[in-house]
Amino acid sequence: LHKTRPARPPRWIPPPTGLAKIIVDAGISRTGNTSAVAAVCRDEQGVYLGASAVTFDGLNSPEMLEVIACIEALALASDLGEFNLRKDSFDAALLVHEKRDSNVEVHNLAKAVSSLSRGRRLWLLDTPDITCIPAILPI
């Protein structure tokens, strides 16, 4: 007999007060022909601020996609005006690895866009219409 654990609800870890948090992930389509990176930004109250995703043809290295996802986080931050990015200082950015249960929504976004045509997509006012991303997360 196999025991199955009950599914844990997604657990979002808020950033420190006054800061925004951008979570990232990458995904490869079922066919392996296309891939995508995605980023979702929320404030310390869990309020959705924006999201972005980039779809690629022929790129299927998980390591390379994770690096590109981090770069996309910086692009989203710039689009949102969340950080004043300077080439000589990244004091405003902190990279932290979190478990899958705290990045479910961005994982689902990366999977959803991985089968779309190549290009960058940006959602600043509304949540992406291709996946279920709530406007506010319970804290």
What does this structure look like?
- The chain has one domain (21-123).
- The chain contains 2 helices and 4 strands, in the order βββααβ.
- The protein has helices at residues 62-80, 104-113, and strands at 21-28, 34-42, 48-57, 119-123.
- β2 (34-42) and β3 form a beta hairpin.
- Mean pLDDT is 81; it is low at 84-91.
Write the H/E string, N to C. Answer: EEEHHE
Can you list the strand order of the major beta sheet?
A: 1-2-3-4
Number of domains: 1
Structural class computed from helices and strand pairing: alpha+beta
Radius of gyration: 15 Å
**How much helical structure, as a percent, in the residues?**
10-25%
The major sheet is characterized as: 4 strands, antiparallel
Overall form = globular
Poorly predicted runs are 84-91
Proportion of beta-strand residues: 15-25%
What is the averaged pLDDT score?
Answer: 81
